[in-house]
Amino acid sequence: MKEWFIAQLELGSIEIYLYAIALFFWMYHLGYIFDIYVRAHLLKKANDAETGILPSISIIIAAKNEFKNLQVLIPKLLEQNYPSYEIILINDGSYDETDEWASQFALKEPKLKYTFMDPAFFKVDGKKMALTLGIKKSRFDHLVLLDGDCLPPSNEYLQQYGQQFSQGKNLILGLSPYKKHRGLLNRLIQFETYLTAGSYLALASKGKPYMGLGRNMAYTKSLYESVNGFESHYEIPCGDDDLFVQSVSEKCKVGWVLSSESMTYSEPKTTWKSYVKQKLRHLWAGKYYKSSFKRKLARLPISNLLFWGIVLISMSFKMHWFIGAFLILLKLIIKWVVFHITSKSLMKSNRISLYPLVSVVHLYFQLFTTIKLYFTKKISW
Length: 381
Known about the structure:
54% of the residues lie in helices and 9% in strands. By secondary structure, it is of the alpha/beta class.
């Protein structure tokens, strides 16, 4: 055993060179992990400040074929413990029972303002047209955006955004976890949602916001109008959240809401085919990101891929695999610990169950979707 261990450390010059490069990417990758996810973990303490008068808020919801979800969401929003707000519901050409139900509900509920968008006149992919109409119809300057399939957990939801608005923030980023279910796909969705949340919150805390979630975010109408709304990316069917945030990133005062009361929850995709389709829509918007954000976001996956590629090549030389295996195992343990602690803090529950397996699936899923995106000519909504 002792002789074998010594033999494992007797490396040739090429192996030393390769392992040195692998060690560099190992350190770079883990350093980036700490910088992003530990920073996001500490945000809950960094965002406390004295609040002022709570402003009036307009909740904007663009929904298509969400009849059953809206029957739960709208009454929940009407129970909010907030002094002054309205709900703007835009029916984006639904062909379910939404129109009949919402038009009748709006007659007896003064806080609900309802509009139907006829798809025969508005033939636009995505929901930017619906959001534009909803924002124009809103009475108040402070806007909270939700999707029809989201659900806030309590009647204190609007309070969280109102407090941030009262501190002078004009762009506020929220969290929106998916509900937990059994299966490997759901584990992957939970993991990717956590990774995305940590990334956009950490960069926002550095004064470089690049995205939010359209199903749980807020901004002021004056900020929206300062860049002419979605004009710079209107022809792109997606990007009403991330591309908009990038368009205002240099002029906004960004804040975030991280309490459990401020989160919204959605049902995740239940088939691999539907999740790949959803993922491609998100990646499609990424093609139009600013170059500076593309470079920042590429650091994590590229450093990971380079580490794996170089360390596996290094391990194949004369079967000297011990050092490579040690680096892989140590990297896995460190990331597991960091992700476990920070996900429970940020997302209020463990979102990285089955991490060793999910991390491998995530790596291959990234490669698959990146390659598929390259050969995709058009995204269907």
